[in-house]
Amino acid sequence: MLSLLNLDTLSRLWQGLFITLEISIISIIITSFFGLILGILMSFKNRYIYILCRFILEFVRIMPLLVWLFIVYFGFSRWLGVNLSSTVSAIIVFSIWGSFEMMDLVRSSLQSIPKHQYESAKSLGLNKFQAYFYIIIPQAFRRLTPVSMNLLTRMIKSTTFAYLIGSVELVKVGQQIIEFNNKNDLAPFIIYGFIFFIFFIICYPITLYSRKLEKKWS
Question: With the CA atoms of 180, 183, 184 and 185 taken in that order, what torsion angle do they form, in degrees rounded to the nearest 10?
Fold first, then answer.
């Protein structure tokens, strides 16, 4: 039964996993950078910035990821006349989605800091920038880390949608292997089970680390 997991199969799955990790890692880096900046901007008491960020956030949340992928890959490519590969399209979509989700997490973490922390910073003679840099952001970072890791785990799992626009990532490779071995009734169980195991190996340590931080900093 496990003979299906031969060197050729594992090699092809590794190629698919490489694309999955490429989409995940680049999207997570972009998400972490822009999510932090947008979250800090949103936490400022500027009505126009808040309304704009909130509107885009709701727009991103309401739109299904699959529709986003189709719009960017099929729509923008034809509209703008640019040739976006399926992998690049997936990175764009997951980066936008992740950035605005991260923005809301950063905003809520910053706003959860008690008011007396701001007042204490002011009484120490710190200006607004120093108070944010030395007191508010370090405390908010502790609250942000566990919840942001949950978001990053969701992003890794959501990369499986990329195969629907033709990206040859892990699930797509698995599907090709199953189609090639269509006479083997156990092929779907073995291949998809192995893919489940790979995602478990990637995501579960992140979940455990998130729980550990949550207990440590609670």
Answer: 120
Burial class of 195 by CB neighbour count within 10 A (0 to 12, 13 to 18, 19+): buried
Quick one: how far is CA 62 from the chain centroid? 17
Give the whole-angstrom CA distance, residue 156 versus residue 150: 10
Instruction: Supply the pTM of this predicted model.
Output: 0.85
In the structure encoding, which two tokens stand for residue 213, read together? 């931080």
Report pLDDT digits (tens) over 74-123. Answer: 888 778 778 889 999 999 999 999 999 999 999 888 888 888 887 787 78
Q: Tokens 């959501």 identify what position? A: 158
The contacts of residue 34 (CB under 8 Å, 6+ apart) are 95, 99, 102, 103
Name the residue among 37, 43, 57, 216 with its Cα closest to residue 143.
216
d(CA 34, CA 31): 6
